[in-house]
Amino acid sequence: MFLPDFDYYAPESLTEAIGLLMQLGPSARVLAGGTDILVKMKSGLLAPSALVSLKNLHELRRIRWDADRGLVIGALATHNEICNSAVVQERFLSLAEAAHKLANNQIRNRGTIGGNLVNAIPSADLPPILIALGAYVTLKGSDGSRTLPVECFFTGVSRCALEPEREILTEVVIPPQETTGSTYLKFGLRQSGALAVVGVAAAVTMEGDVVRDARICLGAVYKTPTRAIQAEQILVGKRWNNNLLEEAGRAAVGCCLPISDIRGSAEYRRDLVRIFTRRALKCAITKGHV
Amino acid sequence: MIPSTPADQKPKSIPRAYSHPGLPEPADKNYAVIGKSKPKIDAREKVTGQARYTADLKFPNMLYGKILTSPHAHARILSIDTSEAEKIPGVKAVITHKDVPTLKYGIAPARWDENIFCIETVKFVGDKVAAVACIDEETCYKALKAIKVEYEVLPAVLDPLHAMDADAPQIHPEYPLNKNTEIHQNFGDVDEAFRKADYVRTDFFIGNRTYQAPLEPHTATSIWQDGKLTVYSSTQSPHYFQYYIAREFGLPMGNVRVIKTYVGGGFGGKLEPTGLEFGGAVLARLTGRPVKMFYDRAEMFAHNRGRHRQYMKLTTGVNADGRILGVHADFIMDGGAYTSLGIASAYYAGAMLTLTYDFENYRFDMNRVYTNLPACGAQRGHGAPQPRYAFEAHLDNIAKELGIDPMEIRLRNARKPNTITPNEFVVNSCEMVACLEQARDLSGWADKKGKLPAGRGIGVATGSFVSGAGYPIYRTDLPQAAAMIKVAEDGTAATLYTGATDIGQGSDTVLCQMAAEAMGYTYEQMKIVAADTETTPHDFGAYASRQTLMSGAAVKEAGEEVRKQLLDMAGEMLGLPAEQLDVRLGKISAKENPETALSFEEAARTFFVKKGPLMGRGSYAPPKLGGKFKGAPVGTSPAYSFAAQVSEVEIDEETGVVTVLDVWDVHDCGQVINPALLHAQVHGALYMGMGESIWEEVRFDAKGKIQNPTLGEYRLPTALDMPRVHSSLVPSYEPAGPWGVKEVGEGATLPTMGCFRNAIFDAMGVSVNSLPLTPEKVWAALREKRKANGEDVWDPLACECFLE
């Protein structure tokens, strides 16, 4: 198909970009990679009057470690930049691994973390691990900025808390933490270029064999990425073993509401949630990296 | 299923053995050019991006065309209003059925059932309704949107198993009960064979609708000037395009020129002209300007002509030792809205089942039904791969019941050379046994079968395919292939002119190797002009794995004619009889005295000065093949390839994910011309077979609309999904082929689906009886098995829900 007509802006500063959004009104959209929005525009699902490209806002591409704030990832960092980043690999290898599991190499070269979050599809690969690691986002508007935990960012299928006519998501921050291990496991229908049928992220804080803290987030099985709180509660304070993880896996199934579609039935997805929750937990507990 | 029909033909005696009168295998195979992995003749152009495909072509004043298609699976067209579209600036033509010939067309003459644009009803989502030609692509989409079509939606046939119901909607009034092709063939006495058998078993399998998904979309640019129509097209057969385009427009074939550019894959889907050629020609005629048309990815899926989904019931009777006595194949295939190549697909589905195993009694019943879905056609292996999957799975079920090793039951039944199948195919060379033995030994079958760790399994399957169809698609006495070679005036180059069609598989390369070998020339000095109906001699094109044998035979004859004339001239120059001379790699020498030498160039140049152009001509027509029963020509071939495949898989017992670890593919394809290209064909065919085995399926919603017409959701495997591939050959010589060649292009697709199913069966003891063998199906089968074993299987639907 063909892209519909639209006006194109490539502002040189964040202030200018926010100003443009306010001036252009609600039918303008931010372009930050384009791997989702251009596809939607070509297939006629979206027809914004204008695109405001962030490509010149180079400061939003940085990935850095800040002793106080933690890992700060600019919203324009591409998936490949995240998975190839030394500081990401050193601090939160699981995030680098999750970024590597996303789509295919071509998409990873173009798509950005900010775009991945704002697009807000339930099967997105980055949100589960970001939520499990307690990440938050910074949203900048004309009158200042606000922060929001990624967990609270999603409000529905393709819906999020960002106000598109006055805000830009500028960074994703993973705070320093006690977590001893984390992982993101994805079940896709081929090795590359497949959406998650089920995604499970787990982050644990272990004290020897005892689980002090656990955070589990499920992807692709609810209208938003969703915490499996009841599964976490089963684990906390207990010495881990396979049976305990299986129990947590079964509880996680109660925390999701998958649909049946061409990628899998609800029944299959629910069983996969059990299996992958158990496997993700075991991986987070035993793999020895965050 | 289909009611079993009484045997309408008396069992008759068919000779079981045969000896081919062709050339004997040469003792000396010291070839200079063939049998070597020469680089592809077009490799440099392709990897540097210089190769121009049809979509790359631009002509002065060229317009762009697009087709408006039906949004409904089945509907009556009440009215079409093009007036708004015509007013849009930049729109040069808008056409509907009123502006085009109403002659029905199709690639198969027995059922011409398609119109350029629908007249009364649309028959699937994507059926052609109108077309536009505009100054650019963008204007085309605006124009398409402005065409107003009023439809009355009709009930649609979406389930092929109910297409023949008395109360099913009728799709084509000419074909009652939506029967497109009905086949009842009976060879020997199957009922008697079943009575005599120690064990008779029936199994039922379902295939999947898959699509060729070539990398390059279909494209055509039409130029209609001074009464002559020129079409540049992404085609597998310039000849069939020329024939059918000329027929549709009432033009002499000489006034239709079809030129193939570089083609980015076809796999069967580009064998017949489409709305791009037919619509494009009309738009070019009306506007007087070149018109370029293409399908985007979703339109390619809608146009389809991919693999038929088959519903396959197989009954087989065997001796206690596993010898097959008789087989009854009872199939239904979903043809979609039109015939395409489906008549042949339907016949192939049953005809090819008799090849790899030798049995005497065979019955084949088939109904290819019309549905309101995109039309199916020929996809790599034509109708044969799904029945092959079914039969290989069925045979493993039999072997298990009898306690016979799957490898052993195949060896006991394997076809032998110089035999005739019950449906009267003459098989000359056949190394089925050697293929199985080599696959067994390379894979370490004896150490693995029954001895692999939990979750691992090993399976075997076979395949066989034609090396060119014995008869062309429409009735004609044209030879199958022809070739010309013209040697340059100074002898430093030679150009092969052939209608053979390189669509990426490498026929240009192997035919140039063959030409050089026959001429005594070097491959590096060969040039080629191919697949242009005006400049190259007739050839039917790239389908039915025909070109290496058939086009190759014509090229060999042309090369030998050059060689003879050259040696006659050299004899004159050297004062020696031509019979005493030999030419190899461009050097002419006396056989007795190699010191007496002359270069190809010198002799060729002298020839030109004294006698004019040095040229050779060749053509090839196969002998009359096959029996006299209805449908007998389908499946005939001068020669058949054979293959055995062993695969080892690992199954995630919880999720059902199948990881293919290793595949050993052993082929009998006669003399190999280019080993590197041959193994590439095996890899490619295996890749395609793998995709159809585990991943690929075109899915439809309840209204007949494709749910996954994208490469994101129609999941072809990726490089990361590929197993280790071990492609191997057995020595073989085919007396009916030039230098002893046979096919490899399609045959390698055949064993894979059954091979994987059997490996899963071996690993887990569960049978997945429908394609693709998705993780979810394996997961479901494993759960059923555990439940049947009385194991406690956790129910994911019955757990406590914490959500509000």
Account of the protein in words:
The complex is a heterodimer of chains A (290) and B (804). Chain A has helices at residues 14-24, 37-42, 79-84, 86-91, 93-101, 105-110, 113-119, 126-132, 150-153, 229-235, 242-253, 266-287, and strands at 7-9, 28-31, 50-53, 63-66, 70-74, 136-141, 144-149, 154-156, 159-160, 167-174, 181-188, 196-207, 210-219, 226-227. Chain A has 290 residues and is an alpha+beta fold. Chain A has three domains: 7-53, Uridine Diphospho-n-acetylenolpyruvylglucosamine Reductase, domain 2, CATH 3.30.43; 58-174, Uridine Diphospho-n-acetylenolpyruvylglucosamine Reductase, domain 3 (2-Layer Sandwich), CATH 3.30.465; 181-287, 2-Layer Sandwich (Enolase-like, domain 1). The longest helix of chain A has 22 residues, at 266-287. By secondary structure, chain B is α+β, with helices and mostly antiparallel strands. In chain B, a hairpin with a 6-residue loop joins β26 (640-651) and β27 (658-668). In chain B, α9 (385-402) runs parallel beside α17 (752-764), α13 (507-519) packs parallel to α14 and α14 packs across α15 (600-611). Chain B is globular. The two termini of chain B are 47 Å apart. Chain A binds chain B through residues 1-2, 104, 187, 189-195, 222, 229-230, 250-251, 253-257, 262-268, 270-275, and chain B through 137-138, 141, 296, 654-655, 695, 699, 707-708, 711-713, 715, 717-721, 774-776, 779-780, 794, 796-797, 799-803.
Explain the layout of strands and helices.
The complex is a heterodimer of chains A (290) and B (804).
Chain A (H helix, E strand, L loop, with lengths): L6 E3 L4 H11 L3 E4 L5 H6 L7 E4 L9 E4 L3 E5 L4 H6 L1 H6 L1 H9 L3 H6 L2 H7 L6 H7 L3 E6 L2 E6 H4 E3 L2 E2 L6 E8 L6 E8 L7 E12 L2 E10 L6 E2 L1 H7 L6 H12 L12 H22 L3
Parallel strand pairs in A: 1-3, 2-3
Antiparallel strand pairs in A: 4-5, 5-10, 6-7, 6-10, 8-9, 11-12, 12-13, 13-14
Helix pairs in contact in A: 10-11, 11-12
Chain B lengths: L42 H5 L15 E7 L5 E7 L1 H5 L3 E5 L25 E2 L5 E7 L2 H10 L1 E6 L25 E9 L2 H7 L2 E8 L12 E7 L2 E6 L4 H12 L6 E5 L14 H13 L3 E4 L2 H7 L5 E10 L5 E13 L5 H10 L9 E10 L14 H18 L3 H8 L5 E2 L5 E2 L4 H12 L1 H4 L7 E11 L14 E7 L6 E5 L8 H13 L6 E5 L16 H28 L6 E4 L2 E4 L6 E3 H12 L2 E7 L19 E12 L6 E11 L6 H21 L28 E6 L22 H13 L10 H14 L16
Parallel strand pairs in B: 1-12, 10-11, 14-15, 20-21, 27-28
Antiparallel strand pairs in B: 1-5, 2-4, 2-6, 3-5, 7-15, 8-13, 9-10, 9-12, 13-14, 16-17, 18-26, 19-20, 19-25, 22-23, 23-24, 26-27
